[in-house]
What does this fold into?
Amino acid sequence: MGLKSYVKGKFVSKDFDAQLKKIQKPVGSLGYDPWGFNAETNRLVLTLYSGVYNKYFRVKTDGIENIPSKGPVLIIANHSGQLPIDGTLIAYALATRDKEPRMPRAMIERFFPTIPFLGNLLNQIGAVLGDPVNCAKMLANDEAVIVFPEGIRGSGKLYKDRYQLQRFGNGFMHLAMKYNATIIPAGVVGCEETIPAIANIKPLAKMLGIPYAPLALPVVLPAKVRLNFGQAMKFDGEDVREEEITRRVEQVKSVISDLIDKGLSDRKRLF
Amino acid sequence: MIKNKKPKILVTGAAGALAQQVINRLKDDYQIVAVDFRKHTYISDDIPSYQINFNKRVFEDLFRKYEFDGVIHLGRITSSEETPMRRYNANVLGTQKLLELSHKYNIKRVIVLSTFHVYGANAYNPALIDETAPLKAAELTMDLIDSVELENLANIYLWKYRDLNITILRPCNIVGPGVQNTMSSLLSSKHGPVLAGFSPVMQFIHIDDMADAIVLAYDKNKSGIYNVAPEDWVSYQEALTLSGCSRIPLPSIPPALPKLITKVMGLKIFPLFLINYFKYSVVIDGRSFNQTFGFKVKRPLKEIFAYYREMKNRD
It folds into this structure.
């Protein structure tokens, strides 16, 4: 508690704090929600992260206003760059947008809760164990959820495969239809260059119980990141055949692919 | 004029603070008979109280003598109190006996107190676990098997004998004045152990609110299984801090280390079989109970923790 208030006094500017207070996120009487989100810790981390977002990755967004300010939303994006940096940047972008900011939740890998300190910290800033029950209950609670349907297939891919979309899971489409959630497709460009990996050391990953162990430089490179958000997509109808679901998922995937291409063609240089 | 005969209720676990709260709320409208497995408890002149082993034949005599209308089963021996065998006999076989007699003597209403522990503390638990989730506590520790078994039994009777109208309640951590479970003891102590780097989300319900919930469940006859928890959450470490308890971090990795420490040091306050509940969140969804019974807690978290803080200042 002492450390928190010290850091807060030192770093949180009044303007930024006022901006963050605009976020309407339902929490209990002590600032927590059922998934471990903590309003105070979140404000602090967002503040500390502003330098990373603005100065290090110099993030540029396009179409962030397409994300509705209320109701259940699934932000569907391509996944890249070994660490879930893409998720944190999307979350920061939405939490700090001028008009009606919103605190989205990111679904994270199943091994995070077992890691001391990090697992808790991720929960406190809104990340949630990637379980379909969690996603369903959050949509039922009108939350905005960031989902990477490629999962580790996307984040763990090598540099030579950059910007090639991997297979998408169908789970998000089922949930979007069931909870009548708006889908916002997003193309992330730049995160592939943050930790370029040339190989995956599978035996090491197995030994450590993690999904992959990239052979890469032990630094996160300051690549310039672009986040392009597409127009809202709605899919309705219950009892749709799996074939049709796959077709709908492909439809979202192709929009994301276009958004990535747009980001790549707009970009002048990597760093 | 002679007053109508009051309906009779058998309340088990009478030595516990929760049972006494429940009895206080019901005694005006019902005739209460109190029993406890562990010790004899005096409640008041007009409430007969027995210390009795449910597995003994004399237990049936109570059913013959009083012709109960309902049973509220709150009595359970916790892990620290007895050997595993005695605990199993009391909790599982004792409950079976109780339900069997309830059926035999045409009892129309049964409340069974279970616990959120039955869901198990697992790294992969989603939050807001609802009543249909599998009970995974038994795979983690032998010490919780009796909790899960007790539930299973109550479940079997719930479907087998519909006329018993069994309602099973799975509350979150019950805390407050007089409560002597692990969580209440931790919040009461000056120093509370925590696993370094882990601060799971927890839910707490004040004993008065829980007693209200039990009375509500008894009066409004809706059989089934319900989680009981307020829609409010806090991390374990913050709960300790707010209760004026300083945190003592135990090394948390590798996972065997904290287990070894609690075992070697014999930390009763931080029992080995509950250690995963201090590591991973078990957040239950209490909305079904709240909606079905129109229940809302009256004592917020701040008030609960203020009680523990003030209690320490008084000492």
The first strand of chain B starts at residue 8 and ends at 12. Chain B has eleven helices and 13 strands. Chain B has a mean pLDDT of 91.
